[in-house]
Amino acid sequence: MFYKPEDGHGLPHNPFNAIVTPRPIGWISTRAADGTRNLAPYSFFNAVAYVPPQVMFSSTGAKPDQPGTKDSVANIAETGVFCVNIVEYAMRDAMNVSSAGLGREVDEFDAAGLTALPCETIDCPRVDGVPAALECKLTRIVELPGAHNRLVLGEVTGVHMRDDCLRDGRFDVTTFQPLSRLGYRDYSHVTEVFEMIRPDEA
User: Fold this and answer.
1) Which of 25, 87, 139, 166 has its CA at a distance of 20 to 30 angstroms from the CA of residue 129?
2) CA-based Rg of the chain, rounded to a whole angstrom?
3) Bond preceding residue 131 cis, omega within 30 of 0
4) What is the tens place of the pLDDT at every residue in 106-121?
5) Is 186 within the bounds of a domain?
6) What is the bridge-based pairing of β-strands 179-181 and 23-24?
7) Which CATH number covers residue 197?
8) Residue 100 falls within a domain, yes or no?
9) What per-residue confidence (pLDDT) applies to 145?
10) Does 31 map to a domain?
11) Hey, which residues does 137 pair with through a beta bridge?
12) From the centroid of its chain, how far is CA 156?
């Protein structure tokens, strides 16, 4: 099968998200200028550079009470900071609760029964108990083609890691089984890993 996105795929559901998988989930916490906390998961998320460490996520929708975008992007545009919380399998239900399109005045930390902790390098909340959290300062917001597509880029200024996730000097993902997004309504989690050595490292 071949299709041009502009012509449509003719399938019951869009296959694009199922093709580009698995995708890590960035659980983005922010604070609005008025102090309201926000927490939302984004599966268009990844790391993009080592030195300095940088990450990205993109928002692809809008809310009636946030013209042209969602709460996360609006808050980051106001404050210039955000935190990426890494989602473990055990927190999948809380993550799902925070994905609801709630009003901008609603605190998703409270809605999902989560505890917020302060960050160290930025004025922003983070999720208590996550395996890792990346404190970020905004570098730029890029408007992508499409009505509400926004790419957010940030530099990591602080890194939190849960002590029990460190084994023999490595951050071991099998200790918490990171959640990943697949296509449609499907998710997965990492339960085992394997190592491969590059030919020029042998």
Assistant:
1) 139
2) 18
3) no
4) 999 999 999 999 999 9
5) yes
6) antiparallel
7) 2.30.110.10
8) yes
9) 96
10) yes
11) 81, 155
12) 14
